[in-house]
Each structure stands twice: as C-alpha cells, then as structure tokens.
Amino acid sequence: MDDRLPAPVLASVLGRSGGAVVTCRSELIGGSSGAATGSVTRLSGVARCGGEEVPFTVVRKEVHPLRSGRHAPYAADPRHWAYWRREPLAYASGLLPIGPGLAAPRCHGVVGDVLYLADVAGCGPELPGRAARRLGAWQAGATVPDVPWLAGHQLAQRLAAGEWTPVDADPRVARLWQRQDELLAELARLPVVLTHGDFSAGNLVAQSGTGGGTTVALDWATLGAAPVGADLAALALTTFVDPVEDYLAGAGGRFARADVELGYRATLALTGAGRVHWMLSRGMRLPDGYEDFILSRAP
Fold first, then answer.
1. Which of 18, 28, 140, 237 has its CA at 20 to 30 Å from residue 191's CA atom?
2. What CA–CA distance (Å, rounded) separates 28 from 42?
3. What are phi and psi of 77, to 5 degrees?
C-alpha cells in the first residue's frame, strides 16, 4: 500500500498548495466495512508549507472487487449493491449530501480506486432521532439521478441470492422470510428515493457545531434507489429505536405516513429475518430482544 499523499490531495487537506510532507505514519482502521472495502487507513503527520510545519490527518480508503461469497459474481454489475467502484464514483459525482444536517465526509480527492476522506475521529455517535430527521430532510429534497452505477433495490437483490436453511430461530421469524414475495410486491409500489443503503448506527457520527452540528454518514458504497422508509430499517435494527416520527418531521410532509411506515416495516421484517438467519447459521448469539423487536414491527 502506498501511503504517500498525491499533491492535489495534500493541498486540499492543508487548504493551500505548495506543501510537502515531512513525516507521515499510517494506522489501520478496523471495524466493520463494506463488501468492496480493501483497506481503511488513517494517515497523519506533519507537512511543511510556506515556511511553517502544519499537522495533518486524512483517511485513505481503498476499494476492490468482492472476491468470495454469494454476491461476488455481481461485483462488476453497476446496478447491483455489491458493485465495487460505486463509492469512488459517488464521491466524484457531487451527489452525496454536504449539509447542513446530513453530510458525507469531505472528500479530498479520488485517485484511481483510492478515496482520501476527512478524518472524523473524535466525533461521537449520533442520536437516532436526529439522524432520522436529517435523513428525511435530505431524501425529501434529493432526486434519484439517472446514472448507470446507482444501486438498485438492495433488499430484493440480497433476498434473490439467499436461502433459509434450518436454524434455531423463532418460527415466526422464519415465516417472515417466507413472506418475501408478498412484502417485496408491497415495497415495489412505494415511491422510490435516493438511499444510503446502510444507514446504521455504526455509520453515523455526530460532528459538533452550531444548530446541533452535522450528522456525518460514512460508507456510501451502497448509494442507490429504494422504497421510501427502507433506510430506516438499518437504523432501527442497530438502535432498537423507531425512527418514523422523526423521519416524517424531517421530511416536512414530502412523503405519506402510510408509505414510510410500510417501507420501514417491510424492510425491517425481511432484513431482520435475514440477519437472524445469518447470525444463527454462524453460531453467533442474537442481541437480547432482537427477534422480539423484529416481530413487533412486522407489517
């Protein structure tokens, strides 16, 4: 891996041109990552610019095709959620939110298959309600662009590649999985919005500032088009908080409550059932109350 900073990237990080790196160290950033993520590294050090030494930090994210698993055959399909080059294209497109409210990390440059992003280390987790309100405001004002690499309905694509094998799950959860044709048909009649695709607690950080600061959403590799309310399912499944009321408040009447409720509940039911199966089939322990939460929100 090349940890050197391209000159245009360094100029963006420093806010001025003519700088030169004096020292630079790399630190691998762990945690969950998307299917197309190769490595995520924090580069920090000192640059000399205009006779002074200036500290800097930037996140270097490299992407590559998914090479194994049931979704690997679709890594080169621009309409599939697992398309490996989507995130660099998304940052270069100008389609991502820039605030106020919801924002992607500032991008200092895209060089080939490498992204250089603002470091949001030190920011705390975002409140679910505030994240939902800001998501609603963004989706209410965003149009679904006509670009060839935008992901299609991620849930439908995941279900098409999955199967239910015997696991020790609540039988009612298995029955939710069996309703997928019915629920996907219901989702197909809803308005389509521009979606993050993994609007979960681990991808949301609170950046301080006036007016409640900014909700920074990480990992835009699954940017796509999906039914309204779908993004709320990931938020709810990682916080056990119902986000619909806050979302509707943020959207300012742009979407019908019934549509948002259906999009949220149907997506949560099928996504949750799939995650229950995934965890149990790998010998993992379900979070306390996980199945009950899914069942209580099912449409």
1. 237
2. 6
3. -90, 110
